[in-house]
Amino acid sequence: MRIAIVNDLKLAVEALRRVIARAPEHQVAWIAYDGREAVEKCAGDTPDLVLMDLIMPVMDGVEATRQIMKQSPCAILVVTATVSGNAAKVFDAMGHGALDAVCTPVLGADGHLEGGDALLAKIATIRRLIGKPRAAPVLPPSTAPATRADVPPLAVLGASTGGPMVLVDVLQELPPDLGLAVVVVQHVDAQFATALVDWMGSQCAMPVREVQPGESPPPGVILVAGRDEHLVFRPDLTLSFTPEPRDCAYRPSVDAFFRSAAGAWPGRGWAALLTGMGRDGAEGLLELRRAGWHTIAQDRDSSIIWGMPGAAVELKAAAEVLAPAQIADALRRFARARGAPGQTRGTVP
């Protein structure tokens, strides 16, 4: 791939250049030392991938990402000194179209590189996404579904590029006493899943936390998959993580989770597939629709990248195609209609 480097520190640029040079299938397309220069160079020579720093003079990486995705869209990977320390900016950049984030490799005084393997792994994942667009392999539906009558109403959401901001737009006004159980699979690296949970928790009225293996989705809580493995339902309605299938471009896979929910969860739930590159989640959403769930895909105009929801529309997996504000309204209607065991309906404003 032709890869562009955007970073104002010459030592960081050299570290990134050396990492790219380790993989003969990649080459440096150009180098920019601030966001504005990156926007200009990208317009004249759009690379396959941009390695985008966040903190830079003239124009930072968030604004540069926004302008590049608007004017000359391409794959963007945030490369910053500390992913967890810049979590808010990372999620802002992802909201504007960055695919993922990784810490900047460090070049020591002796020439030793630290963090190069992690960067090359991210580049390899993105290469698969942009070079071989196909549906991710999915797990077969679980067998022997449970028949418990006391389960809460369940909403499941899958998202990738641009997802964090849309997730907040959809979930932020849901009150904790609604009795709704929510599970989210967002394509995000495990190293900053905790930061994503903390950030979503600061924006949403409902408490947000990472999934704990062996638990069943509790009412009034938003659970977020936080591991580099696939989240799935077991037949007893508890959540578990599995390494299979191993050849998915993204871990966790939305398809794997949606398929397991279609096979295990009793009754009819609510599902939404949001903005993202590729096709992950489209096949799973179709399984949910066939199982009687109400299924929604985000519309093209509001999506940073209409890959995943667009694939769902193509498969006729979505009963509705809506903008985020409309998706939020649809979720509130679902919660009102389903209610939770022992809850008085009509508590949603």
Structure characterization notes:
The protein is an alpha/beta fold. The N and C termini lie far apart (50 Å). The protein has a seven-stranded parallel sheet, sandwiched between helices. Strands 2-1-3-4-5 form a five-stranded parallel sheet, sandwiched between helices. The protein has a two-stranded antiparallel sheet with strand order 6-7. It is elongated, with a radius of gyration of 20 Å. Helix 2 runs parallel beside helix 3. It has eleven helices and 16 strands. The protein folds into two domains: 130 residues, Response regulator (Rossmann fold, 3-Layer(aba) Sandwich); 185 residues, 3-Layer(aba) Sandwich (Rossmann fold), CATH 3.40.50.
Supply the key terms.
single chain, about 350 residues, alpha/beta, Rossmann fold, 2 domains, 7-stranded parallel sheet, 5-stranded parallel sheet, 11 helices, about 20% strand
Order of helices and strands: EHEHEHEHEEEHEHEHEEEEHEHEHEH
Mean pLDDT: 88
The total count of strands amounts to 16
> Which parts are unreliable, with pLDDT below 50 for 5 consecutive residues or more?
132-147, 340-349
| CATH structural class of the largest domain | Alpha Beta
Measured as a percent range, the helix fraction is 25-40%
Distance between the termini: 50 Å
Give the structural class: alpha/beta
> Approximately what portion of the residues adopt beta-strand conformation?
15-25%
Q: What composes the largest sheet?
A: 7 strands, parallel
- Within the largest sheet, what's the order of strands? 10-11-9-8-14-15-16
CATH topological fold name of the largest domain: Rossmann fold
